[in-house]
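Project standup — Tuesday

K.O.: blocked on the structure for the chain from last sprint. Re-posting the sequence here as requested.
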Amino acid sequence: MKNWILLICLYFFTSPIRAQVDKILDATIQTVMIYPKGKPLALPVIGLNTQDELLIQFDDLSANYQQYYYTIELMDIHWKPVALNPFDYIRGLAQNNIRDYTISSIAQQSYFHYSFTFPTTSCRPTKSGNYLMKVYRQGRSNELVFAKRFFVVEQEVPITASIQEPFDETISKSHQKIQMQLDVKRIQLQQPELLHVAVLQNTRFNDMLMSNAPSFIRGNQLEYNADRDFVFPAGKESRWLDLQNLRFKTDRIATIQQLGYGSRIILKPDQSRATIPYFIFRDLNGQYIISNSESIRSEDQNDYAQVLFTYLPKNGEHFQEQSLYLAGALTGNALDTNARMQWNSSDKVYEKWLTLKQGYYSYNYILRANQSPNPLHDFMWTEGDHWETENSYTIFVYYRAPGSRYDQIIGYSSLNSIQNW
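H.V.: unblocked you, prediction finished:
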């Protein structure tokens, strides 16, 4: 009982950010990716007034040419629109045409592949902060097809951080804790509560933790190392799925059905790994890579498949007052209806069909209570938690100056738990 009470207290003392931000509003739009150019597994982060570039890509499975446009929108710390005119944070055009596209070849599933880089000379952010990349049809902003988050950062606050075992021995071998020190002398901080620190584990945006209460202030140094600060479930290394060849049955595939107009793939059933001992292997921390072993260009030669994921619950029993989610970039890093597994009462299994492009995918299962969910329990029953698990963490330092109407990101850092091995 003590362990459960402590976990609940940790969850409420460090506030999670739950806003649903990344959205795909058209079922024909697939494989939306935004990342620093040349780094497909990295978070979409660029420096303010630097030469950093993001690459944005997506496929339109309607296979008809569409005129797509993009704009960017500055958001506050809670991912709500700021009370600023777009030209207060955009240098150049607010609306920009996406001109680069290719038509799929070889693939049975026809599609148009669109891509563009950002920022450009015609559209560039002038402020740091949280942003949405919004893509819509025909220059009509009311025909939004998807929105994806990205970050523009300044490096005004140096961050010294490490990953530690939680102080409490009941969770020290199952969870990971981030502690850090910030140097704020450059901003001459007078009101510490105006500065917020957010920590992200891998790409689990729904469970980013935030605090504006340092445990110690020593001159220009702010320390965050209290028991309650930034504790995450460690989980296990992600499950994997190799779809780089749709004619070859890899170790995770039970059946491949070639239907003439595409492929249908039935995966071998998954089940709980909670009681399986931990072992290390290289994973993608919930991300995926678009690639194939058959052709040259993955962007417009990779095919699509309908893929069935199945999860076998213990004793074939339906989870009562709980929802099971297929979690990772393959479901948009969001715990929503697209990620929720459906109960098949006749076969006594959970199922989820996804449309996936050829590539290599990683994912986990998350089980959450429908009422009062606690993210610290996410992997407890489905994956198990082990302190040794390799996880990546990203730290953002937000600051809203007195009288300002937006939140700057004045500090940014990343670290990996492999440093503790």
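K.O.: great, moving the ticket to review. Confidence is low (pLDDT under 50) at residues 1-13. The radius of gyration is 22 Å.
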